[in-house]
TrEMBL record:
<dbReference type="InterPro" id="IPR036388">
    <property type="entry name" value="WH-like_DNA-bd_sf"/>
</dbReference>
<feature type="domain" description="HTH marR-type">
    <location>
        <begin position="19"/>
        <end position="154"/>
    </location>
</feature>
<dbReference type="InterPro" id="IPR036390">
    <property type="entry name" value="WH_DNA-bd_sf"/>
</dbReference>
<protein>
    <submittedName>
        <fullName>Transcriptional regulator, MarR family</fullName>
    </submittedName>
</protein>
<dbReference type="Pfam" id="PF12802">
    <property type="entry name" value="MarR_2"/>
</dbReference>
<dbReference type="GO" id="GO:0006950">
    <property type="term" value="P:response to stress"/>
</dbReference>
<dbReference type="InterPro" id="IPR000835">
    <property type="entry name" value="HTH_MarR-typ"/>
</dbReference>
<dbReference type="InterPro" id="IPR039422">
    <property type="entry name" value="MarR/SlyA-like"/>
</dbReference>
<dbReference type="GO" id="GO:0003700">
    <property type="term" value="F:DNA-binding transcription factor activity"/>
</dbReference>
Length: 162
């Protein structure tokens, strides 16, 4: 990375390559973290999408149920993609679809006991993996780092495509 920056500075002193270094590091960190996260969740028989659905229900608090629309919004997914994940997890006995107790015209997705046990085990290992990935970033610095990444995320989301 440092070599790339120095080469650009030598060849194009009129251009500051520091932003290239930041995004190269973000990309490399994302790829390495994704591999570690997939491996951790894979040990529990889950992929990231399945974990996300189970975790969204688990975070909903007892009785661990959400409407399909609320579940899709929690995962920032289309209803079709949510249904696909839901069906796979339902076949495995990890979630169940039921009529909404408050209004039988609608349905809810509910975490089963097996789903709760699985997501609880997976989230423990998932957080341990994330903590290992952040081991060299002091806990006291994480809120500031998260805020800085949030600024990059907002700018990227607002940037017009060219």
């Amino acid at each position: 990375m440092e070599q790339m920056v120095e080469q650009w500075r030598r060849e194009r002193p009129d251009v500051d390559p520091s932003s290239m270094a930041v995004f190269a590091r973000l990309t490399r960190a994302h790829l390495a973290a994704s591999r570690a996260i997939e491996a951790t969740l894979g040990r529990h028989g889950l992929n990231r999408g399945e974990f996300d659905l189970l975790a969204s229900l688990r975070r909903a608090a007892e009785p661990y149920r959400l409407s399909p629309g609320d579940l899709a919004r929690a995962m920032v997914l289309s209803p079709a993609a949510t249904t696909n994940r839901m069906q796979r997890l339902e076949e495995r006995g990890l979630v169940v679809r039921r009529p909404d107790p408050a209004d039988g015209r609608f349905g809810v997705v509910e975490l089963t006991d097996a789903g709760k046990a699985l997501v609880d085990a997976a989230v423990t290992d998932h957080v341990a993996t994330l903590d290992r990935l952040l081991a060299d970033l002091p806990v006291r610095d994480r809120p500031g780092f998260t805020a800085l990444l949030g600024a990059v995320e907002r700018n990227a989301a607002a940037a017009p495509e060219r």
